[in-house]
Amino acid sequence: MLYAILCYHSEDVVCSWSKEEDDAVMAKLMTVHEKLEKDGRLGPVARLLPTTAATTLRKDQDPPLVIDGPFAETKEQLLGFYVVEFDTLEEALDAARELGRANPGGAYEIRPIALFHPGSVGP
Amino acid sequence: MSDLAWIDATLAAARPQAVAALLRYFRDLDFAEEAVQEACLRALRTWPQNGPPRDPAAWLIMVGRNSGIDETRRRAKLAPLPAEELLSDLGDAEDDLAERLDGNHYRDDVLRLLFICCHPELPATQQVALALRIVSGLSVPQIARAFLVSDAAMEQRITRAKSRIARASIPFETPGAVERAERLAAVAAMIYLLFNEGYSATGADAGARRPLCDEAIRLARLLLRLFQTEPEIMGLLALLLLQHARSAARLDADGAIILMDDQDRTLWNPTMIAEGLALIDKAMRHRRPGPYLVQAAIAALHARANRPQDTDWGQIDLLYAMLEQLQPSPVVTLNRAVAVSKVRGPGAALAMIEPLGQRLSGYFHFFGLKGALLSDLGRTEEARIAFGQAIALASSAAEAAHIRQHLDRLQREGGAPPQSNGSAA
Q: So where are chain A's domains?
């Protein structure tokens, strides 16, 4: 079974870390990552930029609505995610629109990734 | 991160909302501040055992409100003055508190609090000091250290600022769209001012003033989270992040400025740059660029260049032209001239800045750039005169030392054009 581990924390707290504090946390995480990787257990790892950098595409209407800011509803749940690569937000939004046409309802939050490690695990 | 450090960070993050909500509630800045202070003390006592609450800001508001009401009752007993005025809307507030705590309703409260700090009657330094004290919750000695003044002088500055705004009327009604936009612009300007207090520091003071930049970024982030669809606030945060990203490379061991061309770009902070670029991308979709966004876009073009020679000066020239339209100022034209010198040569740039001579006759950077352009053109004697004027206007040893490098180079090379001109770091 592949598992996703979703990371939650207070953005206010994490954003207030100094570079040294942030580096220290990342270094500690890195040792855990290395162990998982050595055991062949590690898939993709991503650290997202803060929610202030997020844009949301509401696809429960046609045409879908683009909203500045993160996904904020609580009556919908996180059911999956994609990692895509484009030069601009507009192109990423186009991809999300296309996905939305295939699967209307709900929303996609488009959030830039700060750090990405592809990992080595596959089904 | 230790328990205590986590609690400190959480309290600092929740503080603006808490002070802002209690200010609306009690309508008295000192009173609101004391109530939050009291709530923070209780948090330090109870959070380590009970764990942090789900919504720290709501917790602080609840506890601060109760302690404030206790205090009002106590005062009412000590001096039998009618406290009704202070307590009149407690009932209403209680009813809608739960609703207000869901986040969106904070935004006008926080904006009001920030707006009070940048009251037009307050001189710029008082605005910034007041915001640091009230909104950020920094202690007077911390602020005094950052401004390089004594604790007593800073205490006095803050007290004076508070008494000025106490006399001015605080607008408590919910702002209309136009008012809200005006407040937002004033607050953005204050945050940028705060950032520049830290960013412009050089020499031995630079380290002490650096936290001002971090705090400005934190406030800009807070503002953007409250006003998520404002492209200028995205632009402001992007601008601060992109400038601050260079901080590790901007100053040498003595705190002297290293020009951007000479900076070790591997020291630039890639995460801050990535966030800044993402914010610009987002803001551009609104297609109504304002001054912060355009300045951020200029900073982004520098940030995208891995080597100085990769910089897209043509695009920077266009963006400065746009900024000249949005916010005409001789300093903007001066900055544009740096880009023009790279694209069309020093002659074109010199022609562009010469008409500014009168208005910028007291401006260090004008003579610094003029000297650099003249020496690029081989007009050594005139370059020496301009550099001499720049040194006379330098406001710090670091600025003067930087111009002296230019003069030394002229001396050494006997007037041969130097490799770089004076683009701002």
A: 10-42, 46-123
CATH of B330-413, picked from 1.10.260.40, 1.20.120.790, 3.40.50.1100, 1.25.40.10, is: 1.25.40.10
The helix or strand, by DSSP H or E, that contains position A29, with its residue range, turns out to be helix A19-38
Pick B274's closest partner by Cβ from A19, A49, A52: A49
Token digits of residue B15: 């503080």
Q: Which residues of chain A have a CB within 8 Å of the CB of B279?
A: 52-53
Residue B95 has pLDDT above 90, yes or no: no
pLDDT (tens digit per residue) in B164-209: 888 877 777 778 889 889 889 999 999 999 999 889 887 777 887 8
Given an 8 Å threshold on Cβ–Cβ distance, is A50 in contact with B221? yes
- What is the four-CA torsion angle of A76, A82, A86, A92, rounded to 10 degrees? -20
SS3 B312: coil
With a CB-CB cutoff of 8 Å, which residues 55-74 of chain A face chain B?
A: 55, 66-69
d(CA B378, CA B274): 40
Token duo for residue B24: 């609306």
Token reading at B273 = 């740059």
With a cut of 60, say whether residue B315 has pLDDT above it: yes
- Which residues are registered as beta bridge partners of A68? A55
Higher pLDDT, B87 or B200: B200
Closest chain B C-alpha to A39 CA, distance in angstroms: 28
Predicted structure pTM score:
0.86
pLDDT digits (tens, 9 = 90+) for A14-34: 887 878 888 999 999 999 999
The ipTM of this complex is 0.88
Tokens in use for B46?
Answer: 């109870």
Which residues in chain B are contacts of A73 at CB distance < 8 A? none
Whether the Cβ atoms of residue B263 and residue B246 lie closer than 8 Å to each other: yes
Quick check: B103 pLDDT over 60? Answer: no
Q: Is B329 helix (H, G, I), strand (E, B) or coil?
A: coil
Contact B13 A90 (CB under 8 A): no
- Give B401's pLDDT tier (boundaries 50, 70, 90): confident
8 Å CB contact of B6 and A13: yes
CA distance A5 to A81: 12
Provide the pLDDT for residue B90.
45
Phi, psi of B316 (to 5 degrees): -65, -40
Count of CB pairs separated by less than 8 Å, A with B? 64
Contact A30/B at CB under 8 A: no
3-state secondary structure B189-230: HHHHHHHHHHHCCCHHHHHHHHHHHHHHHHHHHHHHHHCCCC
Q: Are A12 and B9 in contact (CB under 8 A)?
A: yes
Q: In this predicted structure, what is the pLDDT of residue B78?
A: 67
Please count the other Cβ atoms lying within 10 Å of the Cβ belonging to residue A4.
9
Output A10 or B422, whichever has higher pLDDT. Answer: A10
Residues A65-81 have a mean pLDDT of 89
Cα–Cα–Cα angle for B223, B228, B230, rounded to 5 degrees: 85
